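The authors assume throughout that readers already know how a fold can be written as discrete tokens. A single example would do more here than another paragraph of explanation. An entry of this sort, consisting of the sequence and the corresponding backbone structure tokens, reads as follows:
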Amino acid sequence: MKKSHRSIAAVIMTLALCQGPSVQAQTPPSTLGTAQGAPQPANTTPATPAPTASEPSATSAPATPPPADSAATPVDPSGTSDTLTQEAPVVGEASLPRDLSPIGMFLAADWIVKTVMIGLAFASVVTWSVWLAKLIELFSARRQTQRDLVILAKVKTLADAAEALRNSKSDVAKLARAALLEVGLSGGAMAPEGVKERVASRFQRIEAAAGRRMTRGTSILATIGATGPFVGLFGTVWGIMNSFIGISKAQTTNLAVVAPGIAEALLATALGLVAAIPAVVIYNMFARWIAGYRATLGDGSAELLRHVSRDLDRGHIGVDAGGRPVYRAAE
């Protein structure tokens, strides 16, 4: 009996000695310290075999990034970005005219700016109408005056000049008839200087009337040329004021909101210049032409005064009932 017990104890000791080194080898170094302080249960978990070269490791594969979460998107707490992106197209479509041509800007302008534009357009029409009318008048008057001056250079007496210009309606013909009339009224006068003075006085009145007639209508050109830019500037100022009011209402400084109103305002200034610049140029042109015409008319009056002086030196003291000159009888 005792031998059996001893043999069993020896087997147990042998088994214990065989299992002890394997358990110590499987225990990690980190647990050795704790195992020395207190007894720990043996780790019976089998060791994981190391991956071979033919089998790729699961940890070596690149990790696929997770899908972006919509909730992680940063949101502007003020909410101004969404408001601007949603409201900007609405403001542009609602307040901006799509047609930015001159006619489209005129139709979209304020009624005061429209009135200014209409007035400047009418002033431009008046300018060109006066230019056409006065051009025809001055051209015709200068042509007739040049023709009558040639006739005066050919005749020898005042009566012959009046006869040659009987059917003419030019100012030179009026001068000839006025000189003949004054000589006839001064038939009993014996002082030639007094006759020539009265004839010269009639000539001055006729020349002044011709100058007033030629300058008639040109004063409006001076008015348009002087006031046209300022009227256009008034429309520009009014249009820019409306543009700033629109900016304050839209609460935006976007160029698309500001540009149409400023363009409409500048259109008024452009129309003012279109009306004023031709008016000034045409007025100066007519001033030179009228001065030249009056100089030509002065040549005609000087030629007629020479005829009067010659007739007085010949003893011409008047005209008879048929309009022929009457000379003093030889002593």
